[in-house]
Amino acid sequence: MKEFFRVKIVENLQGFLVPLAVLALWQWLSVQAIVNPQILPAPTAVLVKWWEYLMPTEAYDPAKSGYLAWIFSGELIHDAYSSLFRVVTGFVIGAGMALPMGLLMGANERIYKLFNPLIQVLRPIPPIAFIPLSILWFGLGNPPAIFLIVIGSFFPVLMNTIAGVRHVDGIYIRAARSLGANQTTMFLRIMLPAATPYILTGARIGVGTAFIVVIVSEMIAVNNGLGYRILEAREFFWSDKIIAGMFSIGLLGLAIDTGMNRLNNYLLKWHRGIESN
Amino acid sequence: MQSHIQIKNVNKIFSTGGREVVALDDINLEIARGEFICLLGPSGCGKSTLLNGIAGFSLPTSGSILIDGHEVVAPGPDRGMVFQEYALFPWMTVEKNIAFGLEIKKLPRAQILEKVDGLLRMLNLQDFRDRYPKDLSGGMRQRVAIARVLALDSPIMLMDEPFGALDSLTRRNLQDELLRIWTSLKKTIIFVTHSIEESIYLADRIVVMTYRPGKIKRDIRIAMPHPRDPSSAEFNALKKELSLLVMEEQQRHYQEEIKVPAGD
Predict the structure, then answer these.
(1) Residue B239: strand pairing partners
(2) Which of A144, A213, A271, B195 is found 20 to 30 A from B82 (Cα to Cα)?
(3) In this complex, do B148 and A174 lie within 8 Å of one another by their Cβ atoms?
(4) A207: closest CA of chain B, how far (Å)
């Protein structure tokens, strides 16, 4: 048992070796002033800046706000919240439109033939190419950003839902028909669950796209959020804040991906290759 | 008196790639209530096509299939189907799979539960109630598929090479189980197989079919009492007789296969 834990600890420590070496090299380059700290600030400087960015800007004053509100009043928290809000809102709208449409198009050949040409024309346009039009239509602020995220998450969810429904194994349909299933039962209890693996893959791609689009749109159309913050930092030549912001974006992305993964494992616990416990 | 299942002048023609294949050629068959009948023949003899016709998945090109005098036009819960590939719904637990047909019938919750409990016991599946199909062995999956069909109380059970993918021990085990169910529930079973031994072990009556076009070559009744001993003289004499019939058709199948250029 003791031996087992020792092996575990050694294995875990191994994972830190390369990142630590990179950090050490980076620190050394900065301390030795081999690279201009304006261009590449030391990791310690980035960490200090990140802490400043994270913590409240004003001193705690019980008269003005509660402790919890105060602790979450830092700039980073606000930016992360704004970005996350846009991603979630845009994704929910985009996927919310794509899912029923995909189910319909997948299940009904006539609807598929009617809508497919339009979709094939619009789909290859990267969501970022919609930026000028979205600003023209919606001005600045949340509306154009959310519009872009809607577009970014709509197509992956739509395409995968269509594919999922069209690829439902015929044997499930035959089995359900011989067990007496009507159209509604067939749709809700056979087609939809059978298509879930595809739909969730689409959702993961959609969220990934939404996350890219939110950063880009904040750099152009909005004046808060993580994307805006790192662009703003560049104007002041705050390279430490740029890097701190980048790591924050990475952490948020990781959190979103972990969340999607959990959802995936929960909804697909019946699926081959995923262990239920 | 009319038979339980009447198959009258049934023809089925498939056209694939400009070629017409006569899968069933003027099939006439009467099946009595409670009969255990095996459709036997090499692949391509139309035995599954005939079964799918009775199930209502693929209707005959001409002729008719009648159940108690009513023509088959669509699949229905009066004819439960057990597939070789099990066809369990992988997103449902064992319990949910068995209850599926009962929930469609909108039976009260308590009644569904009672029925499912009984079937789980009958097929020794109690410990697997909350498992998903992916966690079950092939034999266990086929037990669930049988339970799912039995849940509907359909008088007819259609089985399309249900034990074809199982190892021989599991297979024998399930054959015995099926015989026990058939004896106690008095179902009409139409069982497709290409295993001669399996058909002799199980059936009241064996219908041997010819390779394209699919016709009935021989209709044999077996009077041996159950359980049948595959090492007995009577069993083996029958096995020899049927082997000759089936091998003739298998030869024709083979001749056709080597005649047709590759890629067909």
Answers:
(1) none
(2) A271
(3) no
(4) 24
Residue from B79, B100, B102, B141 whose CB has the most chain A CBs within 10 Å, to mutate: B100
Domains of chain B: 1-78+159-241 (3.40.50.300), 88-153 (no CATH)
Q: What gap in Å lies between CA A178 and CA B12, rounded to an integer?
A: 21
Q: What is the ipTM of this complex?
A: 0.90
Closest CB to A178 among B75, B90, B133: B75
Q: Which residues of chain B have pLDDT under 70?
A: 1, 260-264
* Domains annotated on chain A, with CATH: 1-35 (no CATH), 69-267 (1.10.3720.10)
Q: What is the pLDDT of residue A276?
A: 40
Verify whether the Cβ–Cβ distance A175 to B57 is below 8 Å. Answer: no
Query: What strands, in cross-sheet order, belong to the sheet with B216-221?
Result: B79-82, B156-160, B188-193, B36-40, B205-209, B216-221
Decide if A178 and B148 are in contact by the 8 Å CB cutoff.
no
Q: How far apart are CA B173 and CA A82, in angstroms?
A: 63
Q: What is the pLDDT of residue B260?
A: 64
